[in-house]
């Protein structure tokens, strides 16, 4: 396990196994990150919000690219989330799935095993499907969300909350 000194992890988060958390990433309250069989990588400036579960499976790493927001209560299992993407609250992303960069998975969606989505898409439903391409404003909102959580984590680090 490696947690960068400039990352922030809530006291009650649980992290075990082969996990790499990069600079300015944050892991929020009651989140569980486990990796017994493969590797979990959380890249720079990404945030894993409260009560998420991040896990792997044999031959299925979990990779969360730079600047991602993983919404409250999401479950990511052996998948790849592209740079500057947002996974909505309560969504589930299963083994082998790939979310392209600059994308949004709507709250409560189920991304089934090995499903792959192109960059820049709004993805929703159970099972998840492409609804439409994201606008440039929506892609920018993803960036802002990730940056807001970098700033918020610094406030928590300084015990301002």
Distance between the termini: 28 Å
The 3D shape can be described as globular
Integer tally of domains: 1
Computed Rg:
14 Å
Low-confidence stretches: none
Helix content: 10-25%
Tell me the β content: 35-45%
DSSP summary, beta strand count: 18
List keywords for this structure.
single chain; 161 residues; mainly beta; ten-stranded parallel β-sheet; 18 strands; globular
Description:
The chain is mostly beta strands and 161 residues long. It has a single domain (2-157), classed as Hexapeptide repeat proteins (UDP N-Acetylglucosamine Acyltransferase, domain 1, 3 Solenoid), CATH 2.160.10. The chain has one helix and 18 strands. Strands 1, 3, 5, 7, 8, 10, 11, 13, 14 and 16 form a ten-stranded parallel β-sheet that branches. A hairpin with a 2-residue loop joins strand 17 and strand 18 (128-133). The longest helix is centred in the C-terminal third of the chain and has 22 residues, at 136-157. It is globular and about 40 Å long. The relative contact order is 0.13.
Topology:
Blueprint: E1 2-3, E2 8-9, E3 14-21, E4 26-27, E5 32-42, E6 47-48, E7 53-55, E8 62-64, E9 69-70, E10 75-77, E11 80-81, E12 86-87, E13 92-93, E14 98-99, E15 104-105, E16 110-111, E17 121-125, E18 128-133, H1 136-157
Parallel strand pairs: 1-3, 2-4, 3-5, 4-6, 5-7, 5-8, 6-9, 7-10, 8-11, 9-12, 10-13, 11-14, 12-15, 13-16, 15-17
Antiparallel strand pairs: 17-18
In short:
The chain is mostly beta strands and 161 residues long. The chain has one helix and 18 strands.
């Amino acid at each position: 396990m490696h947690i960068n000194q400039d990352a922030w992890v809530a006291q009650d988060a649980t992290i075990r196994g082969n996990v790499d958390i990069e600079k300015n990433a944050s892991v929020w309250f009651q989140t569980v990150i486990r990796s017994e069989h493969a590797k979990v990588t959380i890249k720079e400036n990404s945030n894993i919000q409260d009560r998420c579960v991040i896990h792997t499976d044999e031959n299925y790493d979990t990779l969360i690219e730079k600047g991602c927001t993983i919404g409250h209560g999401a479950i990511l299992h052996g998948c790849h989330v592209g740079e500057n993407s947002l996974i909505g609250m309560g969504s589930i992303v299963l083994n082998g799935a790939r979310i392209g960069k600059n994308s949004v998975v709507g709250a409560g969606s189920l991304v089934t095993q090995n499903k792959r989505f192109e960059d820049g898409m709004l993805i929703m439903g159970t099972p998840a499907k492409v609804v439409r391409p994201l606008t440039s404003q929506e892609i920018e909102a993803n960036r802002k969300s990730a940056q807001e959580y970098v700033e918020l984590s610094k406030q928590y680090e300084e015990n301002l909350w």
